[in-house]
Please model this.
Amino acid sequence: MSSATHPSALRAWWAQRPPAAGAAVMATGIVSVALHLTGREVLSRTALVLACAAWLILAANFVYLLLADHAQWVKRAGTPGALTAVAATTVLGTRFSLLGWTLLAAVLLALAALLWPWLLLLVVRHWGRRMPGAVFLSCVATEGLAVLAATLAAATSTPWLAHAALVPFWLGIVLYLIALFRFDLRQVARGSGDHWVAGGALAISALAGAKLLAAAGTGMYLWNADDQAVLHDVTVFLLTLDLAWYAVLLAAEIAWPRLRYDVRRWSTVFPLGMTAAATLSVAAVIDVPWLDGPGRALLWIAVAGWLAVATGRGRPGQGGAAVRGSGPRCDRQVHSTAMKTFTRVSPPTSANSGFSTFSSSRFT
Model:
């Protein structure tokens, strides 16, 4: 290999890291949280180590592009998958907070809060119609801030942090409603994995509500009884909607099987784990013991999903494999290079290919 081609090959290899890193942090991180909630501490910490490794890869690539190829960084920052940087950071911070590492969790919260408005603005400006499940990442990233802030508020007895968490909590719900009208419902039958984020966004919203209720239960006076009742009812409603989405998406997977591996399946594992974590958290905070059983069952489904995707990723010739047929049809705004991800092709050789695991397409 000549010196002229070696840097290009190295950059092409490096450009393939963010898809696995962004999705794996979110999926692995929330599975770690759910395992902690059920007392499986050894497995939880093992998953945490894996999530940290994936996050470091994501962060290194983020900084590398920002410093070495700013134009490419800006281009990528406009895709829906860019928000995985925020969501992954908040999930990881939440797990560290549960470990008692509040300072590190606070640093990750500050970092996520710094990135969130700029990335959200860039992504929303490129929204179109009939978008894939990645459109719901606007809600996921926003609610991730609420989850981490509320978790830290409870751990440090900081009322203002709990009050601040209310802002992304309610804003995330608004963003979900906007995203829902832009979501292509045909993705339920045709999606390659990221369509599950439609339910995962509701799951993380319910988890945020549970964390806010838990913060209020630590002895701090945060809001009056009426406000507490509203938050309680909204949280239960969000979890109910999430479980309904779960049932619909699962039925769609059975009706329209998509068995071939696709890297976007990491964005299926994340909602599976998030639904388990939300169910367990809501069961504990509103004192509904019978929900604990379903929550534990959902956790092991998520663990099985994680193992399936992780082992599938390592099989020769499986990376980025297509789903049956030609895959989902996106509107004209979908970048032509993204459509290659719906057919079995060789690994991308340009920095534009497969930027985000959650994003099934790029938008111009």
About this structure: The CA atoms of residues 63 and 69 lie 10 Å apart.
